[in-house]
Structure prediction request, 495 residues.
Amino acid sequence: MDNSGRKWHDFILMLDYGIEELILLIIILLNIFDFFKVLPDEIDYIKKIISWTVLGYLIYQMKPSEILFGKDTKWMDFALIVSYFMLILNKFIIYSQTVYHESLNLTQHELMQRSLSFLPFHHFIVQNSTAIEQVGFSFAMFLMLVMSVFLSREQKFNGPSVAEIFGNIKNPIGRFVVIFGIMISFFIVFINLFLEWLAIAIDAPLMVIGLLFYIFYSRKFPIESYIYKVGDFGESFSKNFINLFHSKQTILLGLSGMLVLHTLTDIGIFMIPYTTGIYDELYLGHLGANHEPLFKLFFLESPMAFSMGFQVVLTYILNSISLILLLVSPAIIWYCFYRKQRLKLARPLLALFFSSLFVFLCLPVYEIVSLREKHSIIGADIITKTVTSNGLSSYITMILAISILIFVGVYLISKIPQALLYIEYLWFICTAGFFGYYVYNFSSSVILYYVTVIITSISSLTTIFTGIIFSLFLIISALFYVVGFFYFVYHSMTM
Prediction:
């Protein structure tokens, strides 16, 4: 290659590098603007589509056919991703419903200010939501059935893979059932939750947290790799996590990890909006009343609360600290047995855990309930309420004083190694109890939703196939929550 050709080649490489960097920078900026809710609805909608596309490509690069069945088949990877996307069309339907119903309460001037140019599109989606969901579901099932028939001709599952766990199944019908069940299970346990969390629910908070983390440690990384490391924040995590489902030795660890991710994501869905006042209309806006940020709750307090402003604010702070620690603790415990380390938490955090937990139990401003009525969104819900709505609010000063004593007492006693061991056991028991209560509320909402769909479906011959498929969804979901939780508790206790 002559000198001019080499320069042209170097220029093309530099341009390609610059374009990739620019695209990553745009995605990061869009997520930052989304976090602070300054994106127009149309741009936010486009951003979510971009996020889904990027995650779809990421899943394709992970070779799901190889993970599930031990053989990398490109057309099957593509078909799996298409079928999974067809099954989650309801997520974008919910977004369109939120935007459209919100627009009905706006004046003409407000509509012009918000420039809702996608409003006719949202109206079309809302008007045809049932048909869109049915077509997407039918097409997804058709693709999965075709792939299951194709794979059932194989005499042996390759490994390492999820299918290899079931060993050699000589009966073609048995292989078909196992293959179809694996495809459905992978959707329920991994794809459905990851696409919802990383592309819709907490994509912006996750990106902002990742950005802050890399800014704080930026001197450790070369400047030219800074943007790529931020953009890779979610990608590297999901890629490492999905490998847990690759063998029988780690699949239960992966299941319990998915349950842990439920509580972690609720920090982004609920706790960040409640503490900052910045929330996503797709979730909190769709859930209605009893989801007010803390600063709004303060002004809803009774007049008595204003005479004790410091105590009330401190109660809000300790409640938030307690719930965040309770939501994070399962992840800390899971990480300890994932790394085969002893369960441990820093002594100041242990003291803060128990002191704030006492306030949370006596004067709760948060309550975890099950979403049983709003079937468009299922799972656990965290609602807020004022301090003075609690029966013990008149004892707020005494409760806070006892909380301080608990902090000091736990911190001092934990200096004794044997006492520290018992305190850590008590922390685990409290965490396991809270985690079980959370999983119960989340799973009962999911199971109730499936039961409702099944009863509706089997009442008509034209939809009985849908009822059968959702029965499979129900069984897999119940096994996932029960097995995942008990493995978490059992494995933690045997460490």
About this structure: The chain is about 75% helix and 0% strand. Residues 20-103+119-249 form one domain. The first helix runs from residue 3 to 35. The chain has a mean pLDDT of 78.
